DNA sequence: GTGAAAGCGCTAACAA
DNA sequence: TTGTTAGCGCTTTCAC
C-alpha cells in the first residue's frame, strides 16, 4: 500500500523541478508542449491525483463552495441544491451543504465554519429568524464571493455580493391574468403575512393584475391565513359560505399546500372545480400533478435558480484571463403551469 | 484587513511554542491546566480559527464526509441527506454532497474525487447502473470507512465497510397484515421488476403475510407495472374490470405514486375507497397526506437512515480513546402509517 | 509539561 | 523555458 504519487515524485522521475510539473499540470503557457506531454503521460501512469488540501493551504483558498439553506427538506431547497451541485460539479467545484435550521445563530456559526474552511465562495438562502447581518461583514470584507438566493438581504451591497431571486410579482400577475381569461370575476387570494417579501410581491401582483383588467379588488377576498392545508381549508370554508354574489369564482393561493386544502373543502361543500371556482397555487410542487383536478400553479425554476447562483458566483471569482466583476442581481422569470383546476 | 490568527501567532504572543498551543487547543492531557486556560483565553480574544486545510494536509485526512447519491431530487434522498447533514454537523464533520446521476461512470469519478480530497469517510447509495465494484477497491484498501445506505452492494465486505438499509420485507408484511385485519381477502400487489432488491423483498413480504393468514396468493393479483401514476392507473384499470369474485378488495402498491394512480382510477370507475377497495402504498411521501382519502403507507425512516449511517461510519473511525470497529450492517424497522385509504 | 525540528504537497515570486 | 527558494498552518516525533 504505497503512498500516492505527488508532484515531487513526478519531478524526481522526470528529472524536472516541482514547479515545472506544477505548471505543466496547470497547462501554463510557458511550459514547452514536449514537457507537458511527458508530465501528463507519467501523471497518468502513476495515477497522480492532485492534493486539494495542499493546494488550498498554499493558495489560502479551497475549491469548495459553501451552501447554506434553512433546511434540506421539502420540495424547493432540494431542487435548488440539485441545480447548485450540478453546475458546481461541472465547473470543478465541490459543494459543502449546511443547514441553518431557520436559526440566525446557527447561520452565523456556519458562516464562520465556511470562512474557516476558506471556501471559494458562499451561496446562501437566509434563515427566517435572521434580523441582523453583522456576520456577513467578514465575508464581504475578506472578498469571498457571496450569492444570496431566494431569500435575500435587501440593501446588503458589495463588490463581491449579488443575488438570484424569482419574480414573484410577475408570477402572481400571470396566474391572476390567466384566471381572468378563464372568466373569473371575483378572485380571492390566500396569503401569508405581508411583511414577508414573497407574499407582499405576490399580493401586489394579484392586485395589479385585477386592476389592469378593470376589476376592483375586494379586500374581503384577501384571506390572511396560515399557508398550510388546514389554513387553506379554513379560508376556503369562510369564503364559500358567503352569498352567491359575494362568493369568489376563482382563488389564487400564495402556495400550493393551501390551494390543495382549499380545493378539498370546495369539493366537499359541493362546488365543482374549476366550473364553480377555479383554483391556482404557487410553486409547482410535485403533488400539484396528483390532485383531482390537477392544480394550476407557478413554476419557480428551482434548478435554474441554483445553476444561475453558481454562475453568478463564478463571475466574482478571479481566474486566469478574467477579472472578477460584480454581476447585478438576477431576477428569474417564473413559468405559469396551467392544469385542470383552472381551465374551463 | 489583517491576517487571521494562526497557532504561530498565539505562540509568539504567549511566549510558548507552537506545539504547546496545538496540544492545548486539542485538550491534550499533558499540558497544564493553567497553560490551557491562557491559550484558550487568547484564542478567543484573537478569534482564532483552526485551519482545516493545514490540519488535513498534515494528517493526511480531512474532516469532511463524502456523500454520493444518485440524485438530490424527489422525496427520499433529500430526507436522508437531511439526516446525514444534521448528524455529521453535530459530530463536527463537514459534508460534501455529490450526485452520480444514476451513472456508474460518474460514480467512479466521484469516488476518485473524494479519495483525492482525502475525506474521512464515504456514505454511498448505489447508482442503479453500477454493475462492477472495482472502484470501491481503492476505498476498501486505503481503509477509508465506507457506509452503503439504502442501495447496497451485496457481499462487498471489509473491515471498513458496512451498510444501513430498510427492512422492506417487514414493511410489506405489516401493510398486508393490516389490510387483512381490515377485512380484505383478495389483495393485489403492484410491483416493479423483481430483480430489484426492494421489490423482491416487498413482494416476498406480501406473499408471506398472505400465507401466514391462510390466504392463498393468486398470481393474477400481482401486477408488474411501471411504478408511476400512469402505471398504477393502468394496473388498477385491468384489475377492477375483472368480475366481482375475482376483483381485488385491497391493493398494496410497492410505491406511493402508483398507489395514487390506482386510487384515482378506482374512484373514477365508481368504486369507493376504502369500502370497495382498500389501498396502501410504500414510502410515506409528502403527497400521501393530501390525497382523498389520505393514503395508508409505510414510513422508511429516511432521516433516521441518514443519521444511523453517520453513526456507523464514526464507529469505523479511529479517535482518541476508541479503537475502530466494524459494525454489522444495520437494518431499520419501517413504520406502518395507517390513513383513511385503508381504514374501514 | 514544554520546546525544537521536520515536513505534509503544493505554488508563486524571483532568478537564471 | 526551467529551477531555486520559501512558506502556507498545522501536527508529531523526539529530546529535555
TrEMBL record, chains A, B:
It holds the Pfam family LacI. It comes from the Bacteria. Keywords: DNA-binding, Transcription, Transcription regulation. PROSITE patterns: HTH_LACI_2 (PS50932). Residues 5-59 form the HTH lacI-type domain. GO terms for molecular function: DNA binding. Gene3D superfamilies: 3.40.50.2300, lambda repressor-like DNA-binding domains. The keyword Hydrolase does not apply. InterPro entries: HTH_LacI, LacI/GalR-like_sensor, Lambda_DNA-bd_dom_sf, Peripla_BP_I. The keyword Transcription regulation applies. PANTHER family: HTH-TYPE TRANSCRIPTIONAL REGULATOR GALS (PTHR30146:SF109), LACI-RELATED TRANSCRIPTIONAL REPRESSOR (PTHR30146). This is LacI family DNA-binding transcriptional regulator. It comes from Hymenobacter ginsengisoli.
Amino acid at each position: 500500500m504505497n503512498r500516492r504519487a505527488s508532484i515531487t515524485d513526478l519531478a524526481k522521475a522526470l528529472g524536472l523541478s516541482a514547479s515545472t510539473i506544477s505548471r505543466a499540470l496547470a497547462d501554463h503557457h510557458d511550459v514547452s508542449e514536449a514537457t507537458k506531454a511527458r508530465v501528463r503521460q507519467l501523471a497518468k501512469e502513476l495515477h497522480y491525483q492532485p492534493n486539494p488540501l495542499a493546494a488550498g493551504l498554499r493558495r489560502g483558498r479551497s475549491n469548495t463552495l459553501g451552501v447554506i439553506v434553512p433546511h434540506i427538506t421539502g420540495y424547493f431547497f432540494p431542487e435548488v441544491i440539485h441545480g447548485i451541485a450540478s453546475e458546481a460539479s461541472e465547473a470543478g467545484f465541490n459543494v459543502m451543504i449546511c443547514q441553518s435550521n431557520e436559526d440566525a445563530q446557527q447561520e452565523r456559526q456556519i458562516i464562520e465554519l465556511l470562512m474557516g474552511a476558506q471556501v471559494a465562495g458562499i451561496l446562501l438562502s437566509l434563515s427566517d429568524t435572521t434580523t441582523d447581518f453583522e456576520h456577513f461583514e467578514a465575508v464581504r470584507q475578506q472578498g469571498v464571493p457571496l450569492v444570496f438566493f431566494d431569500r435575500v438581504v435587501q440593501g446588503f451591497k458589495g463588490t463581491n455580493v449579488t443575488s438570484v431571486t424569482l419574480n414573484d410579482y410577475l408570477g402572481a400577475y400571470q396566474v391572476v391574468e390567466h384566471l381572468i381569461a378563464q372568466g373569473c370575476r371575483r378572485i380571492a387570494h390566500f396569503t401569508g403575512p405581508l411583511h414577508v417579501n414573497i407574499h407582499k410581491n405576490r399580493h401586489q401582483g394579484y392586485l395589479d393584475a385585477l386592476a389592469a383588467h378593470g376589476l376592483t379588488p375586494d379586500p374581503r377576498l384577501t384571506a390572511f391565513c396560515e399557508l398550510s392545508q388546514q389554513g387553506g381549508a379554513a379560508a376556503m370554508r369562510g369564503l364559500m359560505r358567503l352569498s352567491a354574489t359575494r362568493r369568489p369564482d376563482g382563488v389564487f393561493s400564495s402556495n400550493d399546500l393551501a390551494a390543495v386544502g382549499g380545493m378539498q373543502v370546495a369539493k366537499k361543500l359541493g362546488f365543482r372545480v374549476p366550473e364553480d371556482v377555479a383554483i391556482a397555487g404557487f410553486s409547482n410542487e410535485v403533488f400539484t400533478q396528483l390532485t383531482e383536478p390537477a392544480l394550476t400553479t407557478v413554476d419557480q425554476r428551482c434548478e435554474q435558480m441554483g445553476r444561475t447562483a453558481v454562475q453568478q458566483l463564478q463571475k466574482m471569482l478571479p481566474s486566469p484571463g478574467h477579472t472578477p466583476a460584480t454581476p447585478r442581481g438576477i431576477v428569474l422569470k417564473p413559468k405559469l403551469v396551467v392544469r385542470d383546476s383552472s381551465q374551463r
